[in-house]
């Protein structure tokens, strides 16, 4: 099948009606190294597509070599990108916890002007300058002060440190 035929077929195919197992997918006789790749692909969340290719193979729409090529491409995808996505989701969840802790530490007030409106979390030492996302390096500032901070040189870092210590 050409790519065009596969695309045309995908547009008109009915989805499989019953769940398929990894064992069913492995029942297509592939060499051992391909089976391991299929296991990896199955475990990393591409089972819906694998189901569709199994369905295609059962109906005679795809030869096992075509399925092999596609699954090999899936399995060769750099898994680190998926790990980074998981890390990002964890960081987003933890960010809200960190934000609440910073606001509590600063009594929900801007450390520069004392305002309690439009509070944002600010890195005292910017990340690009080696700052970390630790609570000690984070403080609450209002939107206005945060924008001023971004427009000025690092002089405000000193002001933030001195106001926090009081």
Tally of individual helices? 8
What's the CATH class label of the largest domain?
A: Mainly Alpha
Beta-strand percentage range? 5-15%
For the biggest sheet, the summary is: 2 strands, antiparallel
- The termini sit apart by 73 Å
Low-confidence stretches: 13-19
Q: How many distinct beta strands?
A: 2
Shape: rod-shaped
Q: What is the helical fraction, as a range of percent?
A: 55-70%
Describe the structure.
- This protein has 166 residues and is mostly helical.
- The protein has two domains: 3-77, no CATH class; 88-165, DNA Binding (I), subunit A (Orthogonal Bundle).
- 59% of the residues lie in helices and 6% in strands.
- The protein has helices spanning 3-12, 22-26, 32-43, 47-58, 64-75, 79-105, 143-151, 155-165, and strands at residues 119-123, 138-142.
- It has a two-stranded antiparallel sheet.
- Residues 13-19 have low confidence and may be disordered.
Q: Can you give me a brief rundown of this structure?
A:
By secondary structure, this protein is mostly helical. The chain is built from 8 helices and 2 strands. Helices cover 59% and strands 6% of the residues.
């Amino acid at each position: 099948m050409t790519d065009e035929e596969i695309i045309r077929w995908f547009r008109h195919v009915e989805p499989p009606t019953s769940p398929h197992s990894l064992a069913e997918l492995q029942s297509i006789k592939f060499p051992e190294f391909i089976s391991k790749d299929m296991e990896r692909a199955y475990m990393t969340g591409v089972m819906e597509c694998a189901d569709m290719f199994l369905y295609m193979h059962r109906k005679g729409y795809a030869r096992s070599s075509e399925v092999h090529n596609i699954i090999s491409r899936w399995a060769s995808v750099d898994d680190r990108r998926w790990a980074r996505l998981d890390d990002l989701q964890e960081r987003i969840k933890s960010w809200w916890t960190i934000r609440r802790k910073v606001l509590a530490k600063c009594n929900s007030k801007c450390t520069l002007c004392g305002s309690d409106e439009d509070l944002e979390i600010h890195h005292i030492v910017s990340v690009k300058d080696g700052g970390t996302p630790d609570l000690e390096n984070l403080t609450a500032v209002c939107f206005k002060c945060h924008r001023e901070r971004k427009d000025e040189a690092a002089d405000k870092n000193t002001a933030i440190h001195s106001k926090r210590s009081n």
